[in-house]
Amino acid sequence: MKLSRIPVLLAIIALVLLIASGPGSRLGWWEFRTGFSMMRWAVYLGLGAGVLALLFLVIPRTRRGNAGTLAFGLILGLAASAMPLYGLSQAKSLPMIHDITTDTQRPPEFVAVLPLRANAANPAEYGGPEIAAKQAEAYPDIRTQHLDAAPTDAFNKVEQVARDMGWEIVAADATAGRLEATDTTFWYGFKDDIVIRVEPEAAGSRIDVRSVSRVGLSDVGKNAKRIRAFIKALGSQPAAG
């Protein structure tokens, strides 16, 4: 094999590992930790391909007649490592929490979802003041919402938005003002559970949302992003006080 092809081969292997890591976990071909290991090896191989290609480019003997192939290996290797490294940097910039709620003092509680979380690594019970403090620092915008609608109408709108977002509705109890659902992440197929509480308040309804991952110490901001998307679709406003 020509030396100039080695970086390209390493970069291709890195891309295959990267592309397969998530869908393979989602389809149950391997555990998600194996998928994470594959992604880590994609970084190693991608960076290795890039370094090797760069080294061969600066050596006249290996560069001669192979510049295009080596440049391709360099770009491919960097591309394979860029996405996982970006995800890692995002994870390090966010708190190690996986339970996000608009009401940290009185978080909405799961009922119907509990049997589905029986084997989940993360508990359904809220973590208390320490988690609340970390959330307040990282996501100060996630607050209780107000909707200018009677509780019944507000609940109907909440349910419609949840369905429009593609969540799997587990329970919708309009009398109790509680909706529970599960959302599956696109790449790895992680199951995150959501509970929404609708309560009457002056001139409308009070809406609280909680989104919790079943596995993982950190959600890399996914639960906060989900709640923000829900609030935006709902068209609500932060509640006073």
Automatic annotation (TrEMBL):
The chain crosses the membrane at residues 38-58, 70-88. InterPro entries: DUF1499 (IPR010865). Keywords: Membrane, Transmembrane, Transmembrane helix. It comes from the Bacteria. Pfam families: DUF1499 (PF07386). This is Uncharacterized conserved protein, DUF1499 family.
